[in-house]
Amino acid sequence: MLRIRLRRMGAKNRPSYRVVVADSRSPRDGRTVDIVGHYSPIDKPEKVVINKEKVTAWLSKGAQPSDTVRRLLGKIGVMEPLPIRASVTKPAEQAQATSAPTTPETSVSAA
User: Fold this and answer.
1) Which of 14, 26, 27, 69 is the most core-located residue (most Cβ within 10 A)?
2) What is the domain-level CATH number for residue 24?
3) DSSP string computed for 17-47
């Protein structure tokens, strides 16, 4: 299966990424099939340059984007971005929230 994902480039503590099409079994910085763009998260605002024609061609051939690439493709309007995940609470916190009293506590003053 082909994946559209990020390949890390740049210097230490200054990452930049290439948006590439690669086999899902290959390593992150391994052999790629095609380079379709680049992404620089350090620049303010983030710099995203993606060839829309190449990406749509690869998507039509069955390539699946990673979550991060899908977010980037949503920014430029190629596909729908992933929905924002709701915050996940731990089971212990959920149990405390359901067993907590719903009435406000009243303070008793000494006379």
Assistant:
1) 69
2) 3.30.1320.10
3) EEEEEEETTS-TTS--SEEEEEEESSSSSPE
Residues 44 and 17: their CA atoms lie apart, in Å, by 15
* Domains contained in the chain, number: 1
Contacts of 61 (CB under 8 A, 6+ apart): 2
Residue 58's pLDDT is 92
30: left (phi over 0), alpha (psi -120 to 50) or beta: beta
Going 31 to 26 to 8 to 34, the CA torsion angle's sign is: positive
pLDDT band at 24 (very low <50, low <70, confident <90, very high): confident
**DSSP state letter for 13:** T
